Amino acid sequence: MGYMMHHAIVVTSWKPEAVEAAHAMATQLDMKPSPIVSSGTNGYRSFLVPPDGSKEGWHQSDVGDACRAQLVAWMMTAGDDGLWLDWIEVCFGGDEPGANTRIISATPEWVES
């Protein structure tokens, strides 16, 4: 059973040590992040945490949900340590394209109240 729904996180920072720390955390959580890439200008660096590829409700999906929650919780407090990060966690595609597309979480100052 279960249905497919993709969840991904994009992380960006102008501060190299911040994006490197976030990448290390995603790696530690075994999230298989992409390599860190540089922007064309202004020194921004980014990486992607790809979807886990599992159907919702399956064990691997639950593990992916827990890992994403851990990474987001860590990024929420990273600024306290001087690690300024921007991120967005999205949900998209899968068995019902469009119906599942939404922002799950983002850098707090990006979220409208």
Keywords:
five-stranded antiparallel beta sheet; 2 helices; about 110 residues; Alpha-Beta Plaits; 5 strands; alpha+beta; about 30% helix
In short:
By secondary structure, this protein is α+β, with helices and mostly antiparallel strands. The chain contains two helices and five strands.
Describe this structure in words.
- With 113 residues, the protein is of the alpha+beta class.
- It has one domain: Alpha-Beta Plaits, CATH 3.30.70.
- Helices cover 29% and strands 24% of the residues.
- The protein is built from 2 helices and 5 strands, in the order E-H-E-E-H-E-E.
- It has helices at 16-28, 59-78; strands at residues 6-13, 37-38, 45-49, 86-92, 102-106.
- It has a 5-stranded antiparallel β-sheet with strand order 2-3-1-4-5, covered by helices on one side.
- A hairpin with a 6-residue loop joins strand 2 and strand 3 (45-49).
- Helix 1 packs antiparallel against helix 2 (59-78).
- The radius of gyration is 14 Å and the shape is globular.
- The mean pLDDT is 89.
- Note the total helix count: 2
Any low-confidence stretches, pLDDT <50, length ≥5? Answer: none
Structural class: alpha+beta
Q: What percent of residues adopt helix (DSSP H or I)?
A: 25-40%
CATH class: Alpha Beta
> The CATH topology, please?
Alpha-Beta Plaits
Number of domains: 1
For the biggest β-sheet, the strand order reads: 2-3-1-4-5
What is Rg?
14 Å
Distance between the termini: 36 Å
Biggest sheet, open or closed, and with what strands and sense?
Answer: 5 strands, antiparallel
Give the strand tally. 5
